[in-house]
Amino acid sequence: MTRPNVSQTILKDIRALRLLVVHPDDRDREELADELSRIGCAFACQWPLLDAPPSGTDMVLLAVHPDTLSQPCPWLEKPSAPPVIPIVAFENPITLAAVLHLNAFTTIASPVRPAGVLTALALTLHQSKQRRSREHYIQRLEKKAAHQHIIQKATRALMGARRLKEDDAYELLREKAMLQREPIEQVARQIISATEALGI
């Protein structure tokens, strides 16, 4: 079970979100607005869907509606797009495809009822944070791999230019980086540039 202090932290994080409700002005939107107000969320409502959400939007609650299904939303394709919670009135292949396309973690059923809204917000917030953490981790791995490739290339250049063993060439590269007080990958780039300029 979740400890009370953890629940309070989650609720505090949810209340700090800037939400955008994209939904026709009807009973569902009224119910949703009432529940978001009760939770203590900051939100704005709009209809129809704009070309892009307002700057600073943290999460979008989007009606899966014929108008939104037919409208292209290029901003949803961007990695920086805020997470979306679809509001679904019915289930069919087109609706399911739309929900999957939105990369949604959960949905809110229509007609909207208070029960489930807070859970949907909490789940989407938690999962979107997890996804961002994974993406950052992958980016760090990719950057590390790119740096490693540069270091290996510089090491091979030193091995050829000075007839050194691999361990000795790497140690020389590391010592140069320490003496110059620069990252080893930066010194590696300098060595690669120098050897390429000399045609070594």
Relative helix content: 55-70%
Q: In the CATH hierarchy, what is the architecture of the largest domain at level 2?
A: 3-Layer(aba) Sandwich
Number of strands: 5
Quickly give the structural class. Answer: alpha/beta
CATH class of the largest domain equals Alpha Beta
Domains, number: 2
Shape: elongated
Instruction: Look at the structure and name the CATH superfamily of the largest domain.
Output: Response regulator
SSE string, helices as H and strands as E: HEHEEHEHEHHH
Q: What integer value in Å does the Rg equal?
A: 26 Å
pLDDT < 50 stretches: none
Number of helices: 7
Distance between the termini: 64 Å
How is the largest sheet built, in terms of strand order? Answer: 2-1-3-4-5
Average pLDDT over all residues: 88
**How much strand content do the residues show?**
5-15%
Largest sheet: 5 strands, parallel
Query: In the CATH scheme, what's the topology name of the largest domain?
Result: Rossmann fold
